[in-house]
Amino acid sequence: MYILFENFRNVDTYFMQRLMAMAVRGEWVHCEIVFNEKNNVRASAWDKSGVEFRNWEYIHYPERFELYPLPSEYWLEAYRICQAQVGTKYDRLGVIGMMYKIPVFNNERNFCSKLCYETIQNYTSLDLPIERSSLVTPLMMRRMIINQGIKPVPLSVLNQ
Questions:
Q1: Which end of the chain is less enclosed by CB atoms within 10 A, N or C?
Q2: What pLDDT score was predicted for residue 34?
Protein backbone atom coordinates (compact mmCIF):
# COMPACT_ATOMS: atom_id res chain seq x y z
CA MET A 1 0.00 0.00 0.00
CA TYR A 2 1.28 3.46 -0.91
CA ILE A 3 0.23 7.07 -0.85
CA LEU A 4 0.75 9.06 -4.04
CA PHE A 5 1.02 12.86 -4.04
CA GLU A 6 0.45 14.99 -7.14
CA ASN A 7 2.21 18.30 -7.73
CA PHE A 8 0.25 21.33 -8.94
CA ARG A 9 2.39 21.39 -12.10
CA ASN A 10 0.55 18.29 -13.29
CA VAL A 11 -2.75 20.22 -13.48
CA ASP A 12 -3.75 21.06 -17.06
CA THR A 13 -4.00 24.84 -17.16
CA TYR A 14 -1.84 27.55 -15.63
CA PHE A 15 -4.88 29.17 -14.00
CA MET A 16 -5.96 25.91 -12.35
CA GLN A 17 -2.37 25.18 -11.27
CA ARG A 18 -2.19 28.48 -9.41
CA LEU A 19 -5.70 28.21 -8.00
CA MET A 20 -5.07 24.73 -6.60
CA ALA A 21 -1.66 25.66 -5.17
CA MET A 22 -3.21 28.70 -3.48
CA ALA A 23 -6.15 26.70 -2.18
CA VAL A 24 -4.03 24.11 -0.39
CA ARG A 25 -1.20 26.53 0.44
CA GLY A 26 1.47 24.46 -1.23
CA GLU A 27 2.63 22.59 -4.27
CA TRP A 28 1.12 19.18 -3.43
CA VAL A 29 -2.54 19.40 -4.44
CA HIS A 30 -3.87 15.84 -4.60
CA CYS A 31 -3.29 12.49 -2.92
CA GLU A 32 -4.39 8.91 -3.47
CA ILE A 33 -4.05 5.54 -1.76
CA VAL A 34 -2.51 2.98 -4.12
CA PHE A 35 -3.21 -0.66 -3.36
CA ASN A 36 -0.34 -2.64 -4.86
CA GLU A 37 -2.01 -5.70 -3.35
CA LYS A 38 -4.88 -5.13 -5.82
CA ASN A 39 -2.86 -4.56 -9.01
CA ASN A 40 -2.07 -0.93 -8.09
CA VAL A 41 -5.68 0.26 -8.08
CA ARG A 42 -5.95 3.85 -6.79
CA ALA A 43 -8.55 5.14 -4.33
CA SER A 44 -9.30 8.83 -3.92
CA ALA A 45 -11.90 11.55 -4.36
CA TRP A 46 -11.94 13.48 -7.61
CA ASP A 47 -13.78 16.71 -8.35
CA LYS A 48 -15.98 15.43 -11.17
CA SER A 49 -16.61 11.88 -9.96
CA GLY A 50 -16.31 11.82 -6.17
CA VAL A 51 -14.80 8.79 -4.46
CA GLU A 52 -13.87 5.96 -6.77
CA PHE A 53 -11.19 3.46 -7.65
CA ARG A 54 -9.14 4.02 -10.79
CA ASN A 55 -6.76 1.68 -12.51
CA TRP A 56 -3.08 2.51 -12.35
CA GLU A 57 -1.87 4.37 -15.40
CA TYR A 58 1.71 4.86 -16.43
CA ILE A 59 2.91 8.25 -15.17
CA HIS A 60 4.62 10.17 -17.94
CA TYR A 61 6.01 12.95 -15.73
CA PRO A 62 7.28 11.21 -12.60
CA GLU A 63 8.88 14.44 -11.35
CA ARG A 64 5.34 15.74 -10.74
CA PHE A 65 4.51 12.96 -8.25
CA GLU A 66 5.86 11.44 -5.05
CA LEU A 67 5.14 7.91 -3.86
CA TYR A 68 5.56 6.77 -0.25
CA PRO A 69 5.20 3.20 1.04
CA LEU A 70 2.79 2.68 3.92
CA PRO A 71 2.73 -0.10 6.50
CA SER A 72 0.13 -2.39 5.01
CA GLU A 73 -0.65 -5.07 7.55
CA TYR A 74 -4.28 -3.88 7.43
CA TRP A 75 -4.42 -3.15 3.71
CA LEU A 76 -7.55 -5.26 3.19
CA GLU A 77 -9.47 -3.33 5.82
CA ALA A 78 -8.22 -0.07 4.27
CA TYR A 79 -9.31 -1.28 0.84
CA ARG A 80 -12.76 -2.20 2.16
CA ILE A 81 -13.28 1.17 3.86
CA CYS A 82 -12.34 2.93 0.61
CA GLN A 83 -14.65 0.59 -1.26
CA ALA A 84 -17.49 1.52 1.10
CA GLN A 85 -16.91 5.19 0.19
CA VAL A 86 -17.23 4.61 -3.58
CA GLY A 87 -19.99 6.79 -5.00
CA THR A 88 -19.63 9.44 -2.29
CA LYS A 89 -19.81 12.84 -3.94
CA TYR A 90 -16.88 15.26 -3.93
CA ASP A 91 -17.02 17.76 -1.07
CA ARG A 92 -16.38 21.15 -2.70
CA LEU A 93 -17.68 23.02 0.34
CA GLY A 94 -15.37 20.94 2.53
CA VAL A 95 -12.40 21.91 0.35
CA ILE A 96 -13.33 25.58 0.76
CA GLY A 97 -13.52 25.02 4.52
CA MET A 98 -10.12 23.32 4.41
CA MET A 99 -8.70 26.35 2.56
CA TYR A 100 -9.88 28.75 5.26
CA LYS A 101 -9.39 26.37 8.21
CA ILE A 102 -13.11 26.31 8.93
CA PRO A 103 -14.27 22.76 9.67
CA VAL A 104 -17.19 21.95 7.41
CA PHE A 105 -18.33 18.44 8.19
CA ASN A 106 -20.42 16.50 5.70
CA ASN A 107 -20.63 12.75 6.23
CA GLU A 108 -22.07 12.22 2.78
CA ARG A 109 -19.22 13.90 0.83
CA ASN A 110 -15.46 13.53 0.75
CA PHE A 111 -12.22 14.93 -0.73
CA CYS A 112 -8.82 13.35 -1.38
CA SER A 113 -6.79 14.29 1.68
CA LYS A 114 -9.67 13.63 4.07
CA LEU A 115 -10.09 10.12 2.65
CA CYS A 116 -6.32 9.46 2.74
CA TYR A 117 -5.90 10.81 6.28
CA GLU A 118 -8.78 8.76 7.69
CA THR A 119 -7.61 5.61 5.90
CA ILE A 120 -4.00 5.93 7.06
CA GLN A 121 -4.94 7.02 10.58
CA ASN A 122 -7.31 4.08 11.06
CA TYR A 123 -5.73 1.28 9.00
CA THR A 124 -1.95 1.58 9.34
CA SER A 125 0.40 1.44 12.30
CA LEU A 126 1.58 5.02 11.66
CA ASP A 127 1.20 7.46 14.54
CA LEU A 128 -0.16 10.48 12.68
CA PRO A 129 -0.98 13.64 14.62
CA ILE A 130 -4.61 13.93 15.57
CA GLU A 131 -6.26 16.46 13.25
CA ARG A 132 -9.76 17.16 12.07
CA SER A 133 -9.76 15.18 8.84
CA SER A 134 -11.82 17.91 7.18
CA LEU A 135 -8.89 20.34 7.66
CA VAL A 136 -6.07 18.12 6.37
CA THR A 137 -4.59 19.26 3.05
CA PRO A 138 -2.50 17.08 0.73
CA LEU A 139 0.54 19.14 1.79
CA MET A 140 -0.18 18.48 5.49
CA MET A 141 -0.67 14.79 4.71
CA ARG A 142 2.70 14.66 2.94
CA ARG A 143 4.43 16.36 5.89
CA MET A 144 2.85 13.88 8.29
CA ILE A 145 4.19 10.97 6.22
CA ILE A 146 7.68 12.49 5.96
CA ASN A 147 7.69 13.20 9.72
CA GLN A 148 7.15 9.47 10.26
CA GLY A 149 10.56 8.91 8.67
CA ILE A 150 9.11 7.45 5.48
CA LYS A 151 11.16 8.13 2.35
CA PRO A 152 9.72 8.36 -1.17
CA VAL A 153 10.27 5.47 -3.55
CA PRO A 154 10.63 5.68 -7.32
CA LEU A 155 7.43 5.49 -9.32
CA SER A 156 9.07 2.68 -11.28
CA VAL A 157 7.97 0.47 -8.38
CA LEU A 158 4.46 0.77 -9.85
CA ASN A 159 5.15 1.96 -13.43
CA GLN A 160 5.55 -1.52 -14.88
A1: C
A2: 97
* Residue type (1 letter), 91: D
pLDDT of residue 80: 97
Residue type, 44: S
Q: What is the pLDDT of residues 12-42, one digit of tens each?
A: 666 565 566 666 667 788 899 999 999 999 9
5 closest CA partner among 130, 152, 147, 132: 152
How is residue 32 annotated by DSSP? E
What is this structure's pTM? Answer: 0.87
Q: Are 44 and 32 in contact (CB under 8 A)?
A: yes
DSSP secondary structure of 42-69: EEEEETTTEEEEE-----S-GGGEEEEE
The closest of 113, 108, 98, 138 to 44, measured between CA atoms, is 113
